[in-house]
Specification:
By secondary structure, this protein is an alpha/beta fold. It folds into three domains: 2-75, Orthogonal Bundle (Arc Repressor Mutant, subunit A), CATH 1.10.10.10; 81-198 and 384-397, Nucleotidyltransferase, domain 5 (2-Layer Sandwich), CATH 3.30.420.40; 203-377, Nucleotidyltransferase, domain 5 (2-Layer Sandwich). It is built from 14 helices and 15 strands. The strands form four sheets. A five-stranded mixed beta sheet has the order 6-5-4-7-10, with helices on both faces. Helix 2 packs across helix 4 (40-52), helix 7 crosses helix 14 (383-397) and helix 12 packs across helix 13. The longest helix has 25 residues, at 309-333. The protein is globular. The two termini are 22 Å apart.
Length: 404
């Protein structure tokens, strides 16, 4: 930290100090000086600026170490807000997060469906304006909008384009269109990276740790956080573990390969296998045919947790594939922490957690050198939207991407 901050620009210094305050919860000026390697007078000046801007407040005192009890600094919870959106076919989640990434208000909007992209963005921008007005949030206090989407970056880099099948989205610039309609900065990020930054920002992960978040919704991806930022790769498309082939003679995948994790372990794969077992499928449909893959997977996961042996076998099979992919990743990256997140783990997460932990405990190449912690992250329906809001907070408040 000291090496990085000496000679850094004032904006970099300010965001680094802000990030230290965030990740510490509460911290004194003296501790800030110790941890940053900056002088106390520089710290005082930067902190005064942060207090003047309303980003930081003084809150309570630390225990005395002999002299006066030092004043503790903390982020001003309600000083700035970030909006998170997850652009899904069936529904659009919208959340308003405080500066810590906690959801303070949320709503569900009509999904993108087959509407043309510009119509969806116009509709979302109007709904967003009403949402902020209803909660009496001034636009000037909103740092920006994070948008989560299952997708990839286009060949030109930078702007993430949607991979949604609906026509028009592939060439549609979501950041520019929503930015123009809302008047706020917009950052588009894939859902797995959103989930990973959400875990990081929420403070559950120490800021010095490198870790992977495996995100499962309808697809499976990972976000790899290293040095407090997302690892992006050559074209910002790192993390497509869903297309790691686990069976070279396995079923064909949309990507052109065979036996990818996605065709073996996703909710759609589990539902496909359940349909092939007439007895199980009859039990799953006892209260009527599930209306979507998502609801069918929920019913199978619920049956597995309740002890249905066939449903349990299918979930465990999916979990073994996930565990095998995580094992390979752990061996390649020498990870010591893996987080499982996303709505795919909402019901039968314990089975996945147990299977992945057991596999890594038995088979991780470095198991005698260090343990690998496997933990459950956010699995709520708003994981991606909340993560998207964290992308905005991270982008605005950390030294990696300072936005003035
Ligand atoms: Zn594939």
């Amino acid at each position: 930290m000291a090496r990085r901050l000496k000679g850094a620009s004032s904006a970099d210094t300010r965001s680094a100090i802000l990030d230290l305050i965030r990740s510490s919860g509460q911290i004194s000026r003296t501790q800030l000086a110790e941890r940053s390697g900056l002088t106390e007078s520089t710290i005082s000046k930067v902190v005064r600026g942060l207090i003047d801007r309303g980003l930081v407040v003084e809150g309570g005192h630390a225990a005395s170490t002999g002299g006066k009890r030092p004043v503790l600094l903390e982020l001003n919870r309600c000083s700035r807000w970030a909006v998170g959106l997850s652009l899904d076919f069936a529904r659009i989640s919208i959340v308003l997060c405080d500066i810590f990434g906690n959801v303070v208000h949320s709503d569900i909007l009509r999904g993108a469906g087959d509407d043309p992209p510009q119509h969806v963005i116009d509709r979302v921008a109007s709904d967003l304006a009403r949402f902020l007005e209803r909660h009496e949030i001034a636009g000037r206090d909103v740092i920006g909008i994070g948008v989560s989407d299952a997708g990839r970056i286009d060949a030109a880099g930078r702007s993430l384009r949607s991979s949604r099948q609906a026509s028009g989205w592939e060439d549609f610039d979501v950041e520019a269109a929503l930015g123009e309609r809302s008047g706020l900065p917009v950052k588009l990020e894939n859902d797995a990276n959103c989930a990973a930054l959400g875990e990081f920002w929420s403070g559950r992960i120490p800021s010095a740790d490198d870790f992977v978040t495996l995100y499962m919704a309808s697809g499976i991806g990972i976000g790899f956080i290293t040095n407090g930022d997302v690892y992006r790769g050559a074209s910002s498309n790192a993390g497509e573990i869903g297309h790691l082939s686990l069976d070279i003679d396995g079923p064909a995948c949309d990507c052109g390969s065979q036996g990818c994790l996605e065709v073996l372990a996703t909710p759609a794969a589990v539902v496909r296998d359940a349909r092939a077992n007439p007895d199980l499928w009859r039990r799953i449909c006892a209260d009527g045919e599930p209306e979507s893959t998502r609801t069918a997977f929920s019913a199978i996961a619920t049956a597995a947790v309740a002890g249905d042996p066939d449903a349990d076998a299918l979930i465990r099979k999916s979990a073994r594939y996930v565990a095998t992919a995580v094992l390979g990743l752990t061996n390649v990256l020498d990870l010591d922490r893996v987080v499982l997140a996303g709505p795919g783990f909402a019901i039968a997460g314990e089975i996945y957690l147990e299977t992945v932990s057991d596999t890594l405990g038995r088979l991780a190449f470095m198991r005698r050198v260090h343990p690998v912690i496997v933990q459950m992250g956010d699995t709520g329906p708003q994981t991606a939207a909340r993560g998207a809001a964290s992308v905005v907070l991270h982008s605005h408040l950390t030294p990696h991407h300072v936005r003035e």
